[in-house]
Amino acid sequence: MDDHLQTLEHAQRTAIDLAIQFGPKVVVALLIMAAGFYAGRWVARLIEPMLVKLELDATLRQLLTRMLRILVLGLFAIMALQNLGVQLLPLLAGLGVAGAGIALAMQGVLGNLAAGLSIIFTRPFLVGEYISIAGEEGTVEEIKLFNTVLSHPDHSRVVIPNRKIAGEILHNYGKLRQLDVIVGVAYDTDIKLALQAIRDLLTAHPKILRDPEPVIQVLTLADFRVQIAIRPWTFAGDFPHVSSDITQTTLETFRARGIIIPLPQQEVHLLGST
User: In this predicted structure, what is the pLDDT of residue 120?
Assistant: First the structure.
């Protein structure tokens, strides 16, 4: 019983000694970390207006401010560890070995991270632009470190890992898209009348842009029709609806003005039997 009491008293004295020896240092280290947290936020808020003046992309501004906050917090963490008497060189060596193992286990994740940084800094596309890549297309909603989110025309969302984007052929439409409607008219049609009818319907449409100017041209002389290309521009978000609308309006306008869209024709010659 006495031995048990002596053990408890020894443990109590040891705990008190450790608290007296390291307690103030732990409190100071916590205060240093708290100061680092608020200092990081203050520096990020201070630098944000400067980045806005440089007209940097929102995603890049967010990345830079986060990196700055982490850097400031890291500096304060080093000061906190030094206050506790931690030897930093062995700690850094251990973190290096652990980091190498983690890197091998997370090659895919790190590949996405590296590709994300490349996309953010090289800026092959921006938020709000319409792109086609990796067999997918849509309006760019977000550019994150690990993936890029597209808003698809069918109102779904497409999440593409950034490593699937880096190095691929990218078609960036920007914020505009050009329609490509092909219509055929009969050979005896007054072409000038048909072209003027198309100009009129494009001018009347509220979602067809005046700048760039719509392209209307005779495309080819086919077997039974003259093909006319109708290629105006509209905003990317309006593209699916406007494309269908222009096709329908062209048909209705041609019918109203007596312009014939010919049906496929084929001549068949019957040879008399001998």
Answer: 79
Q: How many CB atoms lie within 10 A of CB 86?
A: 12
Mean pLDDT of 153-175: 87
User: Could you tell me the domains of the chain?
Assistant: 2-86 (1.10.287), 124-174 (2.30.30.60), 176-256 (3.30.70.100)
Contact in structure between 58 and 127 (CB atoms under 8 Å): yes
Contact 77, 36 (CB under 8 A): yes
Q: Closest by alpha carbon to 249, among 178, 216, 201?
A: 201
> What does 136-179 look like in DSSP terms, one character per residue?
EEEEEEEE-SSEEEEE-TTS-EEEEEGGGTTTS--EEEETEEE-
Residue 106 has pLDDT above 50, yes or no: no
CA angle in degrees (0–180, nearest 5) for 236-145-133: 40
Secondary structure (DSSP) of 46-93: HHHHHHHHTT--HHHHHHHHHHHHHHHHHHHHHHHHHHTT--HHHHHH
